Amino acid sequence: MTAFILDPGQIETESMRIIRAGLTRPWSEDQYPVVERLIHTSGDPSLEQVIAIHPQAIACGLKALKEGANVITDVEMVRAGIAKAKLKLLGGTVASYLNAPGVLEQAQAWGITRSMTAFRMHPESLRGSIVAIGNAPTALLEVLRLAENPETRPALIIGIPVGFVGAKESKDLLWQRQEIPSITVLGTRGGSPLAATVVNALIYTALKQL
């Protein structure tokens, strides 16, 4: 019979040891927590090959969090996965405007997705924030449009929408915009758990550095 590790701390330690030992790309020390957590959450070591981290992404994200930046998400699932109590210790909150008053009606009027509409209706929330997108490529496209204006530019975009219609293409556009610090998973893979995982990795790192 297989002898299972039952202690939670030991399970996590052993998981991270296995992940670190299997890494093949030359990550910097500050990128390891994000890379390891993405692989841990996905259970997929091959994900390493499509993780893309802007050279300034970690530093910009940590600086923003330490200064009390808020996290804005595209959907409730990303918001639910973020360590809100830990974020509060840094002075920030997390919000999703997907279900805000008027968003559904305006989305229907404009003929676009609710997630895209939610950002378009709340552009002021983006300035200096960390945006985490795990579901909607259209939301990422809108954030990239708003980021052209310094008054509505986030400190960091975590863009990891999942799917086969627009997800790869929206992430390619994000990665081409090298003037904006970003973290993404190129291709069709992604999802809310991965987006929340990146935010949490940054939150825990920021708290350790206080």
- Strand runs, count: 6
Name of the CATH class: Alpha Beta
| Integer tally of domains | 1
Shape: globular
Describe the largest sheet. 6 strands, mixed
Instruction: Estimate what percentage of residues fall within beta strands.
Output: 5-15%
Order of helices and strands: HHEHEHHEHHEHEHEH
Describe it:
The protein is built from 10 helices and 6 strands; from the N terminus they run ααβαβααβααβαβαβα. Strand 5, helix 9 (167-176) and strand 6 form a beta-alpha-beta unit. The chain is of the alpha/beta class. It has helices at 8-22, 32-42, 57-66, 76-81, 84-89, 103-110, 114-121, 137-146, 167-176, 192-209; strands at 51-53, 71-73, 94-96, 130-133, 156-159, 182-185. The N and C termini lie far apart (45 Å). The protein has a 6-stranded mixed β-sheet, sandwiched between helices. It has a single domain (45-209), classed as Rossmann fold (3-Layer(aba) Sandwich), CATH 3.40.50.10230. The longest helix has 18 residues, at 192-209. The model has no long low-confidence stretch (mean pLDDT 96). Helix 6 (103-110) packs across helix 7.
Quick take:
By secondary structure, the protein is an alpha/beta fold.
Which key terms come to mind for this protein?
210 residues, 10% strand, 49% helix, 6-stranded mixed sheet, alpha/beta, globular, Rossmann fold, single chain
